[in-house]
Request: fold
Amino acid sequence: MAAGAGGFIASDLSSYGRSRPVEEIREAIIKPNQPSNGSRGTVTIETRAGQTLTGVLRNEDNFSLQLQSLDGAFHLLMKSDVASVKRDSNSLMPADYGSTLSAGDLNDLVSFLISVAQHDKSPDPKKTEPSDEEE
Ligand code: HEM
Reply:
């Protein structure tokens, strides 16, 4: 999601391009599986009722799992209702943008993220000051 448009599966990118070097933004798009890009991996769950869900694991304890599926919806599942859990360390984000997009397309995406961030009014996450600092 950026500037209120898009999906809920990954972090909000509205201010992402504000203080990052162009090269870092490009890398995040073409190499989503780098540990430095914070990849959480992908989980596929099959329920005993025969439903298959793919997404990101948001929470887990001994008895339950919370999965956010690709459409952004949250699913609270009791482990007793789950038949199998497949964990894949690969990011949900497609890893092939470096080959499926042209250099021009990638430049456009990087420019878009930088320009969206220029208009974003939220505090810069990279420059978070102690909360007693008033503006
Ligand atoms: C051209 C389209 C896309 C762009 C420009 C883009 C851009 C980005 C960027 C810049 C990040 C890094 C965010 C950070 O480090 O805070 C990111 C992370 C992520 N993106 Fe994308 N993305 C795109 C498409 C997608 C799609 C189609 C999906 C899922 C189906 C996706 C899923 C994710 C996830 C889950 C992360 C978090 C890191 C991880 O868990 O691997 N992205 N994306």
Residues 9-11, 13, 16, 25, 28-29, 32, 37-40, 56, 70, 91-94, 97, 109 surround protoporphyrin IX containing FE (CB under 6 Å).
